[in-house]
């Protein structure tokens, strides 16, 4: 075939290809195949995590603050607030339910908060809530309630968010920032009647601006709820264990013996009509009660050996301990027993000199003064190399929170009558001068209160 013929065939092929291209361009575009319902593309899920939520519930009464990063604080009626450390957040595919993880800062217990966007009703009010809330605390248990967006109640979190944007903030600043989660305690009532040992060891009663010396020496002070009468233990022998319980009347300055023959550690009943104390029968210490007006009519409450008495739980029951158990003793029912191992855990040593005090507004909340098994690094110690502190313990949940500052030697912690303040003796015996400090039950507001020691509150 000649060159002319080859060129002609190539030309015809080119024309054919161009014609096909033009035809394809003029042909309408094919419609995409229909998608069945089963093959429908799912709608995008919400990536928005609700914040600035106030949640609460009843029976028991509680509330939760869900802030910028998640759960920040859990409050329960008649308990100190629990500060939470927010963790990861997950959401369900529906985009209407979220789970916020957190840690109980004081105990390390896991906390999970499930927030679901749905109508929620509260039987205690007519408010219409937009979220149902379930809080699971590893120690406390489950709490159910409702939530509502409340940004106006989180002014401190706006400030906190600005601080969090500073990537160079020091650890100290971050710790300080966490404390803003706690609201300042301003509704507390300062005691108007207290008793303590002054720097010389004298028993002193202070009522308002009036201070009186009740005795040149004494121990185990107990001031009546009206602040007018003081019970204290008096040593009757310089060489032996003999002790008596003396009663001092602040108005008259009169002192008389309330009980003798080796007795100690007296407490007033809630209405100041009775006194409970320990009495030695020659072999063991037993619990006795006596009417204020007729102490000669004392009666045996508990015949078994008791190492320490800690006060009244109610008008009919008292708290006492031996080396192994705590006993809620009553004259009308069998004693309730809780092993001290549950209360003290592995951190603290059980000693007969320890004190346990019930919170005046919540008998489930105990204030325990005890010695560490091992003194924390850098903590002040006594002549035996021991360090003492105090902690809060919830009998029901077994939640334990150390409240005493790690830099102090702290003993003999006592509640204020409103249950918001704790007064304790600070200073290592024989090493540093003793005094009394005050701290709020949430661990804030620590300050020096008095130069006296072993302070007790009456009114």
Task: Give an overview of the whole structure.
With 459 residues, the protein is mainly β. The chain folds into two domains: 101 residues, no CATH class; 265 residues, Neuraminidase (6 Propeller), CATH 2.120.10.30. It contains four helices and 33 strands. An eight-stranded antiparallel barrel has the order 1-2-3-4-5-6-7-8. The protein is elongated. The N and C termini lie far apart (127 Å). The N terminus is likely disordered.
Q: What is the first-to-last residue Cα distance?
A: 127 Å
Strand content: 35-45%
Main β sheet profile: 8 strands, antiparallel, barrel
Strand arrangement across the biggest beta sheet: 1-2-3-4-5-6-7-8
Total strand count, please?
A: 33
Structural class: mainly beta
CATH topology of the largest domain: Neuraminidase
Indicate the radius of gyration in whole angstroms.
Answer: 35 Å
Count of individual helical segments: 4
Percentage of residues assigned to helices: 10-25%
Instruction: Give the tally of structural domains.
Output: 2
CATH top-level class of the largest domain: Mainly Beta
* CATH homology superfamily name of the largest domain: TolB, C-terminal domain
CATH architecture of the largest domain: 6 Propeller
Q: Quick one: overall form?
A: elongated
Instruction: Return the average pLDDT rounded to an integer.
Output: 88
Low-confidence stretches: 1-27, 163-178
Topology:
Layout: H1 3-26, E1 53-57, E2 62-66, E3 71-76, E4 82-91, E5 97-104, E6 110-121, E7 128-137, E8 141-149, H2 155-164, H3 171-178, E9 193-197, E10 203-207, E11 210-215, E12 219-223, E13 229-235, E14 243-249, E15 255-259, E16 263-268, E17 274-280, E18 285-291, E19 299-302, E20 308-312, E21 317-321, E22 325-330, E23 336-339, H4 340-344, E24 348-349, E25 355-359, E26 362-372, E27 388-394, E28 400-402, E29 410-415, E30 421-426, E31 435-440, E32 447-450, E33 453-457
Antiparallel strand pairs: 1-2, 1-8, 2-3, 3-4, 4-5, 5-6, 6-7, 7-8, 9-10, 9-33, 10-11, 12-13, 13-14, 14-15, 16-17, 17-18, 18-19, 20-21, 21-22, 22-23, 24-26, 25-26, 26-27, 27-28, 29-30, 30-31, 31-32
